């Protein structure tokens, strides 16, 4: 019975893919990153703290950090609180009012590197790519109906929206955005909404935002939408 369900699901997937091909939907699986305007961060060691920005770090190291990108943890947390009065502050914040930045970093690091066996950079890469696809190819009205495309053997719909206000990184690394993507995996129905600033913070620091803010992009939601990541890991 289990095998028949799997075969039925597989058959449905092939049918969906065939329909997509017939409809002429673009497939960005093999599109070079430079053609999308995506430039990934090269890992860099901060010799003062031992943190590898854009690379793998142990949770034990994260818990002992006193600063990130030359910003003291206390200053970062202050700017990340809801309603912070600073140029990088946000009305709803990057952290909950009582959350600790290092606890959030260590928790998500344990899940992504430890439980999933993936890296923050792998998750961020696909968020970057989808954001770039949306920004480059979405047309007026796609913020409502969405833009349908293929990627890594899946069909996706992405709704892309821009805003007047610009969100700046609290890490003072010159990353910023005024756009967000609302992504749906059309095969599984999994959904994910994220600011295009978040992939930069994930890629550099493994920061998905805190549980106490609606802007958090939980890594569990990312791998649910990009389910091919888990499948590749099992192979």
Number of helices: 9
Enumerate the strands of the largest sheet in spatial order, edge to edge or round the barrel: 5-6-7-8
Write the element-wise H/E pattern from the N-terminal end onward. HHEEHEEHHHEEEEHHH
Taking pLDDT < 50 over at least 5 consecutive residues as the criterion, the unreliable ranges are 1-14
What does this protein structure show overall?
The chain has 235 residues and is an alpha+beta fold. It has one domain. It has nine helices and eight strands. A four-stranded antiparallel beta sheet has the order 5-6-7-8. The protein has a two-stranded antiparallel sheet with strand order 1-2. Helix 6 packs antiparallel against helix 7. It starts with a helix and ends with a helix. Residues 1-14 have low confidence and may be disordered.
Keywords for this entry:
235 residues, alpha+beta, globular, disordered N terminus
A few lines on this structure:
The protein has 235 residues and is α+β, with helices and mostly antiparallel strands. The protein has helices at 2-23, 33-36, 59-63, 73-80, 101-115, 120-137, 198-205, 219-225, 228-234, and strands at residues 44-45, 52-53, 67-68, 71-72, 147-151, 154-168, 176-185, 191-195.
């Amino acid at each position: 019975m289990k095998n028949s369900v799997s075969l039925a699901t597989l058959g449905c997937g092939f049918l969906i893919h065939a329909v997509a091909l017939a409809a002429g939907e673009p497939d960005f699986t093999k599109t070079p990153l430079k053609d999308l305007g995506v430039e990934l961060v090269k890992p860099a060691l901060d010799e003062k703290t031992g943190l590898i920005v854009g690379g793998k770090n142990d949770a034990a190291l994260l818990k002992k950090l006193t600063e990130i990108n030359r910003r003291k943890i206390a200053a970062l947390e202050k700017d990340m609180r809801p309603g912070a009065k600073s140029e990088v502050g946000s009305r709803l914040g990057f952290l909950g009012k009582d959350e600790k930045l290092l606890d959030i970093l260590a928790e998500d690091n344990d899940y992504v590197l430890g439980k999933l066996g993936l890296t923050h950079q792998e998750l961020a890469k696909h968020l970057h790519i989808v954001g770039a696809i949306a920004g480059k190819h979405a047309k007026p009205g796609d913020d409502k109906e969405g833009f349908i495309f293929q990627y890594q053997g899946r069909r996706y719909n992405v709704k892309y929206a821009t805003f007047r206000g610009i969100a700046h990184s609290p890490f003072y690394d010159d990353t910023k955005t005024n756009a967000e993507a609302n992504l749906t995996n059309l095969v599984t129905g999994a959904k994910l909404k994220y600011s295009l600033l978040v992939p930069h913070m994930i890629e550099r620091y493994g920061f998905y935002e805190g549980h106490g803010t609606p802007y958090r992009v939980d890594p569990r939601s990312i791998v649910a939408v990009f389910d091919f990541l888990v499948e590749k890991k099992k192979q």
